[in-house]
Amino acid sequence: MQRLYAAGHAPILPGLAGAPDIVLVSLGTTMGLREADAALARQITAAGATCRVVRATMGASGALRRRMALTDVIEGLAALRAARSVAGAVIYSSVTAALLQPARVPAAVRFDATAALNRPGPGGAWQRRRERSVFARASLLLPWSEEAQRSALAAASPPAPASVVLPPPVPFGPARRIGGPDVVAYAGDPLKRGMDLLYEAWRTARPEGGRLAVAGLEPGEAMRRLARAGVSEPPGVEWMGEVPRERWLATVASARVFVNASRHEDWGLAQMEALSAGTPLVTVPSSGANVALPLAAALAPDLVASERSPPALIRALRAGLALDDAARERYAAAAQRLLEPYRDEALRRRVADHVLPVLLSR
User: Fold this and answer.
1) What is the rounded distance in angstroms from the CA atom of residue 35 to the CA atom of residue 22?
2) Could you tell me the pTM of the whole model?
3) Which of 10, 160, 234, 307 has the least CB density, counted as fewest CB within 10 Å?
4) pLDDT above 90 coverage of the chain, percent
């Protein structure tokens, strides 16, 4: 029987304790994904089961990840090697990690987006086909959002597997403080993250002496990628590189605004972290299962650009930078209320009540 549990609507069932190990097969290709996997392992442990995270490594082949289809093959093979000796219950931390795996029972697939959503066109054809069989034979699907859940269930062959919406927890951010950059952004992939658009908007909207801090990629590599794309850097930009999580969150909490110019967002983790820190979120309407977008629109519509264009982002950025202290305090308080379903305590209950019973009952 198909079971659906969306954020804030899960019934309470007895949890399981003292259960066998669950192995979490993790690609961990970004800081956000690594943290999401570590958080899930902690939630499983808190529920009374033991969990071991098996990290896939790509070695020299990682340098070949240039095109979408080849990237998924390389990452899928790395996950296959990592899971070769796995026995018992397993959770794959992404669709890509599960693409080339043999059939296992019980097995869950956790994902921020499906290939149907983020692998369009000929370059994603084999992933979309393979994804359908991965979903069909899974014991449990663990999408990060309701949109990803709908996409997965539409792709799976009937009868649909059990499905539990399980986003990563959004931690309480550090206390707001002053003295940080005017604007902070995340751009592990500068072009996907829309740095060309953000640069163009920043040239016009930058306040006198303003600073834009960008994390996620080392400065030299960021400059090379942008230069190849013909993007020139405006004044006042600082590339922070891959910074420790504590420094990242502290920087977000000290900024006047966080800005997102991404073309596509599979979930919006960095944006959710900004909301948790009480930092006003200026964003474009990125496509994808972008859970941060409706929250940002509910909090301050003027800070959400009407389209992905320089004029629209300039208007939203100026509106965010113009907020006074009282408006920022109201924004931060409202953001905390909207994030309650994404806090660790609520998600731990969901793991205990709806994830472990499926994976450990066989």
Assistant:
1) 18
2) 0.80
3) 307
4) 60
